[in-house]
Amino acid sequence: MSDRVYIVTGAAKGIGLACAQRLVGDGHRVVLADMDVKSGAEAAKDLAGETERAIFVECDVADPLSVHNLMAETISAFDRVDGVINNAGIAIKGGALDMSIEDFDRNLAVNLRGAFLVSQAVARHMVKEIEGRDDRSGLTDRPYAIVNMSSINEQVAIPDYVAYTISKGGMRQMTRAMSIELAPYGIRVNAIGPGSIKTDMLASVNSNPEAMNKVLKRTPLGRPGHPDEIASVAAFLLSEESSYITGQTIYPDGGRLALNYTMALEGE
Ligand code: NAD
Question: Do the strands 145-149 and 29-34 form a parallel or antiparallel pair, or are they unpaired?
Answer without folding.
Answer: unpaired
